[in-house]
């Protein structure tokens, strides 16, 4: 049977690989001229690592990554609000990794047959019956997987009445710097802004910042340095080391809940189905989970034991409640982190200081306890 995957990012390639390993003939259509990822880091949390292990990629991913369970959260002037017991949360949930997004994409690409990959193809329309119209013509498949991101052409075609992505009130910057080494992943919360950093395997540091802003507000590195100038070390040092041409800024969006991720022979996956804020670091992880579950649930359809549409409805039942629940949890965390009122920020910080590490470790369970 044939599967057509629209979108060659992490979720789309993982879906292609999962289906390929199960005996499907797969083809990936990517609109960009090449299969590439932007220069940013990525947290592979325990649930995402289990998905990669099930694809046979665990060791290859580890070769590019550094073990990096979250150390905790600091206040903008330096004191700890949460200091995680890293050994405890690793024993409880499993290992965390950090790596460059491009390295993960390369691992996925190398695991797929090259003739399954087609870049530079702009999809114009997708139909419920598995027909895809693109710039080079028309093709059909037994299953079409829309893994084409926040502004998914698949979703617009098959779900034309769905609400568009919504801006959540803050913008995000990402960069990779060469500066002092760091021992682990740390995030710092201020009033209406955050800054985080994590080590990469090659000794560089992945940094990100978020700040409340009007939609479409462009802020260069100079403005970013001024915004975080009074924050604790090493944040100013990281910003001083950043290359202005290598800082990525994107407004932060989420996708309102869809009533279903499937229609006919079409299924949505990853950001196309459930784009969420980055506050839990679960965007890529949920896409990887989607890919593994989709391939497993489609197996009876490949072997003639169930119609494709029936199998896809089972995928929707398996994935939509979990992903939408995690998206809501991520939204709430962002709302708490981006409080601008001095009194509300003080109350937030006090509550975090009073929360025992054991409670923090247990609170992660609903997100991280997924298994294949």
From TrEMBL:
Q: Which Pfam families does the entry link to?
A: FAD_binding_3 (PF01494)
Q: Which residues form the FAD-binding domain?
A: 3-158, 259-330
Query: Could you state a single Gene Ontology molecular function term?
Result: monooxygenase activity
Keyword set for this entry? Monooxygenase, Oxidoreductase
Coiled-coil positions are none
* InterPro entries membership: FAD-bd, FAD-dep_Monooxygenase_BioMet, FAD/NAD-bd_sf
**Name recorded for this polypeptide:** FAD-dependent monooxygenase
Species lineage: Bacteria, Bacillati, Actinomycetota, Actinomycetes, Streptosporangiales
